[in-house]
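Q&A log
Question type: sequence-to-structure
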Amino acid sequence: MFSFHKVTLDDKNWMQKLLQEDGWYGSEYSFGINVLWGIKYHIEVARAHDCCIVRYGLCGEYPWDNMMQGDCWIYSFPIGAGNKKAVLDELVAEYRAKGKTLIMNSVGEEARAQLLSWYPGQFLIEENRDYEDYIYDREKLATLSGRKMHNKRNHIARFKDAGEWSYEPLTDNNLEECKALCRRWIFSREDKWNDDMAIELKVLDAAFKMKDDLGLIGGVLRQKGQVVAFCMGEAINPDVFVVHFEKALPEYQGAYPMINQQFVQHACGSYKYINREDDAGDPGLRRAKLSYYPEILLKKYDAKMSSVVFADRSRYEQDMIHIWQTCFGDDEDFIQSFLDHHTADECMLLYFTDNKPVAMASFLPIRIHQAEDTIEGRYVYAVATLPEYRGRGYAAEILKTAKEIWQEPLLLSPAEDSLYTYYQKQEFFTQYSPDKWEIVPENPGELKEKWSFEESSSQIYKEIRDLCFAGDGYVEWDLAAIEYALLYAKAEGGQALCVTHPAYDAEVSACEDILLYETAGDTLKIVETTLNEDDLKKAAWILLKKNNLKKAVYSRPGGMLWLPEECELSLSKEDGYFNLCLGE
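Response status: OK
Response body:
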C-alpha cells in the first residue's frame, strides 16, 4: 500500500514541513524524536496524499501488547495539510481486508473529532493519561514567580549557596563532560536500573552524535567547574520548544530546577511554550512534572478499529434511548435522567453493526472496600441488545472490551435467575447472595410521635450509608449513582428518607438512619435501609399507614464479580454488603 522506510536524516526537510503544518504541540511532532526513538520503536515513515504517516514497530516491547491482534504496527494520525481522510481510507480498507485491527496512538483532540465524524461507530477511542505532554508557559518557567513556586526557588537558592556556578550552551567542547555525567548518573541509579534506562541512554548517545544534524540545542550547568547537569531538545514549531533530555547528579541539591530555569532563560526566549514531554505513567515523574503547574496537559488518545465503541451522546442519544426503551420499557424522561447523571461518553459502550448501535451496556464507577483500602471497580448496568440482534454474542463482546479497557473488577446483578449461567460463561462468579423477606410490621405505639421521616438529600444518604455499611466487601457508590438511585425510587412511587427514631441507649437521645423504598401495587418495597430488624418493623408500620399500603417486603439483589488476573481483591462469601440501589 504505502511505501514505508526507516526515518533518517534524509527525511528532515519534507517531514519538518508537514509536522509544522498541523500546528500541534505534541512531542511526537518533533523530527528528532522520530529519528532517535527509532532505536526502540523501529519507527518508519511514508508520504501519501500530501501527508506524512508514521508507524511504530513494537516487537513486543510497548504497552500495547494486549491490544495487538496479528499485527506489529501502531500508526500516527496522518500529519500535514494534505488529504488525511484519503490516507485513513486506505489504511482502514487494508486492515479490514486482512482481518486485522488498525491502531493509532497519540491522537489529538481535533484528530479524535475527525475520526468520530469520518468513521462513526468504527473506532474505540480512549484517553491515555500516561502519554499526555506537560506544556508550560515559558515566562513562568523562567521566573518561577508566585507562591506555588516557592519550593523551586528554595532549591535553586540552595544550589547557588553551595558554591561558584555557571551556565553555558551545550557544544562539542563540553560534550564529553556530559557523557561522563551520564556514566556517574548510571552509577547513582544502580539499584533502580532497568531496560528502559539502558535504552534511554542509547537514544541519548545517538542524540549527542547527531546533535547538529537534528538541530538539537542544549544547556550545561557547572558547579565549581564540574558539569552537574545538562539538558537538550528542539523546536516543534515557532511557538513550542520540546525538552527531550535532562540529567543532573542527585547529590547536588537544586541541580534539576536550576538547569530547567537557566536553559529556559538563555535558550528559549523566542518560544511561548516549553513542552517537557509525558510521564509514561511513572508516579514520581508525574508528581515532579505537576509540581511546575503546566499551562496545558495535552490530551492524547489511543484509537482502535472496533465494533465496540464509547457512546457519543451528541451523535447517538436517540439510538441509545431506542435500545433502552425497547429492552426495558422506561420512558424517555427517565432515561434522560440516567444520561444526565452519568457521562455516557466515558462509561457506556455501544456495539455497532449495520451502521448503527444495536447493543449497549454502562460501566459505572464503584469502590470495593477491603481492609483499610478501596479498590476501584465498575458496575455493569443496563446491558441491552435489540431483540432482532440477540444471540450473536454482542453483549459478550462489550463485556470483553470493558475488561480490556478498565482492567478493574466488574460487578453486576443479574435481572433474572437464568442470567447467572450466562454470566458464569463470561467468567463472573457469585459473590453476594440475594435476600428477600416479608416484613411483619410492628405498631410503635406511644413511641410513634418520636419518629421523624424527612426526605434525605443524596449527600446525607451517601454519608450515612458509607458510615453504616463500610467493611470488607462493601460496595461504595459515587454521588452521581446515589442521586440516580433516589430519582429511580421516586419514579417508582417511593422516596429516600432520613429516619430519626428513639435510641436504645439511654445516653443517646435519638438515632438517625436511612431508608429507601419504592411502591408496587399494594406493596411497600424496601430497597435499602440502615435500620435494624426491630426498628424496620416499626418504620414499616408507619410507612404502610402513610402510603395506604397493605404489605411490606425487603429485597436485596445478588451480585456477581469478574476480577482481572492481577487484582488484589480477595473476599470470602461472608464478606461485604452490596445493594444495587439503581433499580432492577
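Response note: Confidence is low (pLDDT under 50) at residues 60-70.
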